[in-house]
């Protein structure tokens, strides 16, 4: 589904934005890996 919707099979994500702490960055990456990645990989 991802490739059909976006026209690509690659994605680049930025999980750390200036001013974010290491803890916030880690939390962002963990949330992505738990909530988003399984859906995308299920395609």
Describe the protein's architecture and organization.
The chain is an all-alpha fold and 43 residues long. The chain has a domain at 12-41. Helix content is 58%, strand content 0%. It has 2 helices and no strands. The chain has helices at 2-6, 22-41.
Summed up:
The protein is mostly helical. Helix content is 58%, strand content 0%.
Number of extended strands = 0
The helical percent reads: 55-70%
Main sheet: strands, sense, barrel: none
Structural class: mainly alpha
Distance between the termini: 6 Å
Specify the number of helices: 2
Q: Give me the strand/helix succession.
A: HH
- How much strand content do the residues show? under 5%
Low-confidence segments, ≥5 residues, pLDDT <50? none
Radius of gyration: 13 Å
Mean pLDDT: 83
What characteristic shape results from the CA principal axes? elongated
Topology:
Layout: H1 2-6, H2 22-41
State the main characteristics.
mainly alpha; 43 residues; 0% strand
């Amino acid at each position: 589904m991802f490739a059909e919707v976006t026209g690509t099979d690659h994605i680049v994500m930025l999980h750390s934005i200036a001013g974010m702490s290491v803890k916030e960055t880690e939390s962002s990456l963990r949330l992505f890996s738990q909530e988003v990645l399984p859906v995308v990989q299920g395609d």
